[in-house]
Amino acid sequence: MTQAFIPRPYQDQAIQHLLDVPRCGLWAGMGMGKTSSTLTAIDHLTLVEPNPTLVLAPLRVARSTWPDEVKKWAHLSHLEVSPVVGTPAERLAALRRDVAIYTINYEQLPWLIEHFGNKWPFRTVVADESTRLKGFRGAMHTHHKTGKLFYRGDGGQRTRMLGRIAHTHVKRFIQLTGTPSPNGLKDLWGQVWFLNPEVLCRTYGEFTRRWFQESFDGFSIEPLPHAQEEIQARLKGVCLSFNPKDWFDLQDPIHTVVEVELPIKARQLYRDMEKEMFAQIEEHGVEAVNAAARTGKCLQLANGAIYVDDKGDFREIHDAKLEALESIIEEAAGAPVLVAYHFKSDLSRLQKAFPAGRVLDADPGTIRDWNTGTIPVLFAHPASAGHGLNLQDGGNIIAFFGHNWNLEERDQIIERIGPVRQAQAGHDRAVFIYDIVAVGTVDEQVLERHKTKRAVQDILMAAMKKGKAK
Q1: CATH homologous superfamily for 9-242?
Q2: Radius of gyration for the alpha carbons in the chain, expressed in angstroms and rounded
Q3: Distance from C-alpha of 272 to C-alpha of 282, rounded to nearest angstrom
Q4: pLDDT tens-place string over residues 94-124
Q5: Does domain 254-460 have CATH number 3.40.50.300?
Q6: pLDDT at res. 144
Q7: How far apart are CA 322 and CA 352, in angstroms?
Q8: What is the model's pLDDT at position 292?
């Protein structure tokens, strides 16, 4: 059954921004209706620009979220969305449909560009979760003899190929994200290039030379003192941001750090790996070949198991985190719990310890079962569970069994059941976040690092927003 669409004041601003600025970004907090706002703008555009729209999105979002959204709202029910997903034959069949909007997952973008060649039909492209474009490093250059612009791409295959057509075949380019700079200001250049190559310098090298300096470790870069303010000034008018706390009476999530002590044997193995980059696990000598590998091994040990070869075999070391999670589930007293894991070894152990739990997979029925309350514990990897999924009806408790450095993935999976989505779904209840942390391990460093990254992003988001409507 469709619903009447009554846009909130910030959505009116968002829709107008999308209509007025052909190549723009909409940075709205997760759960604030970016999809419905964008579809409303696209609906207006189809009256004057009849060319079809292409939406790039993570697979689940391309397959389900966008098609479901047009069915949800009465004013969009006349629109059709064709997901270009599946086998080559299924994708070709989807393209043969005569509809206003086509969706495709980022992984299939090279196939789509090769399929159409110079006959690219999509004059409007929407990049949902646009941080997928952050690794782009190409540029438009001017030929020294003819004076004509030409493209030279670098970075991943998807973004390189998208760069070929982004400024020659695409009139409107819209980017949607709630986390534009999850790992700092350097994430912005690749995304903004697709909107306007002049805004943040024509090349990534120019961008970094202008606003960054070498970090103390000698391997990374950090922004110069004036970078934040100057970059924000350049983005105004191109990117529009809204903070959920400006528009909703939100109760901050109740955050609890559940500390666990490693058993003596596990602590010794952890110290061996941390200091010597080697640990003897039964008959296996486990070695970390570099600092990054050592961090990964230490995160595994903190969780309770470690891989002992390249085949995926692992050995269990301790159950401290499993016992902590059991206490959290018991305290929930029957309320469903979303559990975020990182390694496949974590998932294997979680399934064994909590046999009533289910894994968030590609089956749409899993999400339906969760949202109807029939799944007591749902295991989800943040990389595959974050973008575009609505899990708020199923519960309001999330526990992080393991941790990784990706702040965007963490924020995204939290907001699947977060305060905004709870409020919009009519649930008057707090959100509970539990971080299970092994004391004295890299777990603590990861959480501390998230705090500093979030500070940069929060400042940027605040600078891009318009004043709240009276």
Answers
A1: Tandem AAA-ATPase domain (3.40.50.10810)
A2: 23
A3: 14
A4: 999 999 999 999 999 999 999 999 999 999 9
A5: yes
A6: 58
A7: 10
A8: 84
